[in-house]
């Protein structure tokens, strides 16, 4: 199997490296050509100059930022990939975008799997991502060797769009956890509790969670180098807002997180990690 990878950011680059380790990676591409050139040189694979350079791939994985980026890549790949090949999209986009992408590719006999991931940059670096996939079973089965390169769990959630719907649920939970952890730790600071004792105590009980474990200490030190940028969280939450509106359900946790991350982005924290939310909870 020959696989290509487009989108070599904080998540995509380590995922591509795991594909290379499995002997599957043929070509890499990125909007910033220098980034593709550097990774291609490191891994001794092809640096794509255009989508034509993916024409011999059986599977092409995408990990890009926006709905428009997904559709731009899908439209170009639809013109060059062979019938029977599959595009798997790890981006977080709307259900409608996933369905549009699938329809565009299906017209050319090309499969599509919407497969957003969870696990953060750490999960990508460790090859331990959770993949939530939507699409036809045959397409999911074809891309499984690719997904297995960097996933600890692969769940086929249903038809096209089901992966993105699952990611929407995931992001509601993530947003709520972020809110609770940042409020709790801000309270702990006000009460003068020692972080070196507080954090392991919380992690040992029912309050333990991924965000507290991976971001608790760094946020208390005032370190907000991005694992997941606040601007990307806001983008995801707006997608969830549209999905919730269509489902006719009010999500108060979502509303709070939307307001908070809009505030953070508006005040110049869009490139900071989502844990920068503690600044709001401190009142700073």
Automatic annotation (TrEMBL):
The protein's name in its UniProt record: Oxidoreductase
Q: Does the keyword NAD apply?
A: yes
Keywords assigned: NAD, Oxidoreductase
What organism does the record attribute this protein to?
Lysobacter concretionis Ko07 = DSM 16239
Q: Which residues form the 3-hydroxyisobutyrate dehydrogenase-like NAD-binding domain?
A: 161-280
User: Which Pfam families does this chain map to?
Assistant: NAD_binding_11 (PF14833), NAD_binding_2 (PF03446)
The UniProt entry annotates the active site at 167
The molecular function terms in GO held by this entry are:
NAD binding; NADP binding; oxidoreductase activity
Q: Where is the 6-phosphogluconate dehydrogenase NADP-binding domain?
A: 3-158
Q: Does the keyword NAD apply?
A: yes
For this protein, the record's SUPFAM superfamilies field holds: 6-phosphogluconate dehydrogenase C-terminal domain-like, NAD(P)-binding Rossmann-fold domains
């Amino acid at each position: 199997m020959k696989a290509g990878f487009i989108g070599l950011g904080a998540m995509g680059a380590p995922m591509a490296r795991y594909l290379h380790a499995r002997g599957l990676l043929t070509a890499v591409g990125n909007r910033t050509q220098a980034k593709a050139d550097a990774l291609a040189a490191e891994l001794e694979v092809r640096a794509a100059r255009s989508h034509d350079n993916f024409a011999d791939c059986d599977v092409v994985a995408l990990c890009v930022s926006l709905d428009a980026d997904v559709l731009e890549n899908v439209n170009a790949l639809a013109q060059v990939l062979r019938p029977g090949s599959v595009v798997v999209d790890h981006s977080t986009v709307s259900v409608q975008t996933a369905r549009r992408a699938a329809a565009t590719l299906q017209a050319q006999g090309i499969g599509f799997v919407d497969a957003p991931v969870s696990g953060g940059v750490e999960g990508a670096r460790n090859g331990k991502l959770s993949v939530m996939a939507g699409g036809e079973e045959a397409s999911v089965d074809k891309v499984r060797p690719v997904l297995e390169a960097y996933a600890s769990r692969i769940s086929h959630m249903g038809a096209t769009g089901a992966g993105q719907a699952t990611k929407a649920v995931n992001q509601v939970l993530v947003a709520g956890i972020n809110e609770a952890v940042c409020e709790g730790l801000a309270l702990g600071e006000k009460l003068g509790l020692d972080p070196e004792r507080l954090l392991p105590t919380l992690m040992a009980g029912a309050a333990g969670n991924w965000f507290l474990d991976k971001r608790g200490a760094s946020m208390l030190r005032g370190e907000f180098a991005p694992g997941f940028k606040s601007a990307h969280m806001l983008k995801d939450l707006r997608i969830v807002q549209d999905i919730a509106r269509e489902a006719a359900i009010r999500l108060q946790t979502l509303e709070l997180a939307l307001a908070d991350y809009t505030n953070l982005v508006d005040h110049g924290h869009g490139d900071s990690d989502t844990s920068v939310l503690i600044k709001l909870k401190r009142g700073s």
